[in-house]
Amino acid sequence: xxxxxxxxxxxxxxxxxxxxxxxxxxxxxxxxxxxxxxxxxxxxxxxxxxxxxxxxxxxxxxxxxxxxxxxxxxxxxxxxxxxxxxxxxxxxxxxxxxxxxxxxxxxxxxxxxxxxxxxxxxx
Length: 123
Fold this sequence. Notes:
two-stranded antiparallel ribbon; 2 domains; Dna Ligase, domain 1; Arc Repressor Mutant, subunit A
């Protein structure tokens, strides 16, 4: 993947917003800090970053996808009030993948586990 200043700005915005921003949030931040970028350009670059394994797309939390710069295996926690998404270390259930494979008799290539509740800031 060739270098792109726009892609670099998008990646920087995701890294600086560790609560897993949506494309809409990233777009609003970039408009405030670097002027206009079309939403089509944003989505094209997000897709390229996902396709190249640089970021991770998280679907199923809300109607909008969230984006995560942490591509290592981990779980997520989503606050039901503020909708922020936090990383949860996979160390909380270190053998979950092996146990699931054993129970299913399947080969699992990845997983998305989301805990829902109220974060400390909203309690």
